[in-house]
Fold this sequence. Notes:
The protein is mainly alpha-helical and 176 residues long. Helices cover 62% and strands 7% of the residues. Helix 1 (17-28) packs antiparallel against helix 2, helix 2 packs across helix 6 (130-151) and helix 4 (85-92) packs across helix 5 (96-108).
Amino acid sequence: MASREGEARPVRTGENTVTTLIRDWAAERPELDTWAYRFFASAVELERRLSLVLEPTFDQLGIRGGDYETLGHLRRAGKPYERTPTELSHLMFLTTGAMTRRLDRMERDGYLTREPHGSDRRSVVVRLTPRGITMTDRVVDQIVPLLAELLEPVRGRLDDFETTAGMILERLDHID
């Protein structure tokens, strides 16, 4: 896996980073009950490491991971493959300024257009172009098999994982 220039890479010690993190906290603060932090750190590390595995695919295709996320949200919306910029920023937890910059870049690259909203003259919709649809499908065709191969050993535990994640997400939905 290639890393982007200047990006910190984990030090390989034979232990995973979560084990090291928890061991270090136990040494420094033995009174801490770290089970919840262990869960959180595992989720963060899993997302980070899977993202790193996907980066070469994005690099090879000439897009950024965040661009793919945007393309995917539009593609999954169904025909005519459009959403408002506000919907997209909420779906991706981006500020409106960050969303605007991303959409500007992606529009310049020919992956999407911004069109007047059909029923609200004050608003626009973001719509995938044929090039955007093609790129989205190319990425999906490459990353789905890659993820399937990586995660195959835990495939039989997916229902348990989804149940656990769902319980946590439901609790988080009630936090202001």
